[in-house]
Amino acid sequence: MTDTADQKRPSEKLAPNYDDCVYQHLKQAIEDYLQWMKSVGYVRKTRQSHQAKLNQFLCFSKNTTTTWEKLFTSNCLEDFKKTTDQRALTAINGLSRYLFSQGKIPKPLARKTKSVVLPKIHEHYLAYQQTHRQATARLISSIKRVLVAFDQYLQTHEIDLYSLKIEQVDAFLAQFLAPFAAASCRIYRGKLRGFLKYLYHQQNILKRDLAPFVVSRREYAQAKPPNFLRPQEIKKLFAGLTSGSASDIQTYALVQLAYTMGLRPKEISRIRLDDISFSAQQLRVSDRKGKNPVELPMPEQTVKAIAAYVIGARPQSEHRHVFLTRLPPFRPMSPNGVARHITKAMRNSNLLSTAYWLRHTYAQNLLEAGCSIFEIKEMLGHDKIESTKLYLHVHIKLMRKVLFDETF
């Protein structure tokens, strides 16, 4: 009896603590998740915030007796919420989604949404969208988000839907759309526009149709002509460029590409060594905004500027992009980096302009050289001729001659 007990004791001492296994497993999962966040481009501030919250969760797991299978469940999360603030839940939810995608847990934490009771007219509109418009569940969810916010705004300001005015709608949109990007604003604005149409046409609740007035403010500023550099300003710009350093040689090549070929900063940043034929003096631009790849002739001064940079100023690197950052670790320049270098060169010459001014200047030069609007469209890489017409405001008389065959 004694011998049997003595034989078991060593194995019991060597047996791992199960709670410690959960702790170590979670610790490694958090490290992997933070590394994944870095690899996909999360900024350092966000990663640090998540790390701090996940460390709280790690300490919580050490003080609890739950298993790995039960760690990412709603019951465990409720216990954790008692020890921390609400902001930690975002990090925990993100970790659970990552672990689910890696097959480490059977399902991610479910997101609980508060049940919101909308007025009957709002619910009728959602039902109308489902029945008559065959709206998907995702679309209904997006519409409901706007309707909930709109209803809360009306209640807060004690606004009666029957006496709704466009000024009140505009005030709501200014408040609601403030945190969203332009694309999201257009989507949500359209959702509210549809609801207002329904109130006027189907329900006769509104005294007038307010939907046509729900438009983006950006549409009112389209008539402003683009800025471009005059000949004397171009001379001033190039007179201010030097070749005293590797950075100066790089900037000179960037300016030449923007001025003589009208390339966008993004297109310049994506040029690879294989895209340039120095003997044929041609550049292949394969990744354009309008998805219109093209081979463009390169002026001699531009070829020489790029050759000077590649031979004498470009850092040694395995990257095939032509333009690289000046400081190690060397990597391809970003579009913002290209624009920043060009704009800095302009400011050094006392020109209050930006990189895109050179693109507009290029368009004007083509127009004054007698190119047709279709040729300019192809050279600029536009997919619609309407986009090219905006560039032709830079020279009114020639624009009218090219577009409308008018003589003066």
Textual characterization of the structure:
This protein is an all-alpha fold and 408 residues long. It has three domains: 15-101, no CATH class; 120-217, DNA polymerase, domain 1 (Orthogonal Bundle), CATH 1.10.150; 231-404, Orthogonal Bundle (hpI Integrase, Chain A), CATH 1.10.443.10. It has helices spanning 2-14, 18-39, 44-62, 68-71, 74-81, 88-101, 120-132, 137-156, 166-176, 182-202, 231-239, 246-261, 265-269, 300-312, 335-348, 356-368, 373-380, 385-391, 396-404; strands at 276-277, 282-285, 294-297. A three-stranded antiparallel β-sheet has the order 1-2-3, with no helix packed on it. A hairpin with an 8-residue loop joins strand 2 (282-285) and strand 3. It is flat and about 70 Å long. It starts with a helix and ends with a helix. Residues 1-18 and 218-223 have low confidence and may be disordered.
Using brief descriptors, characterize the structure shown.
three-stranded antiparallel beta sheet, about 60% helix, mainly alpha, hpI Integrase, Chain A, about 400 residues, DNA polymerase, domain 1, 3 domains
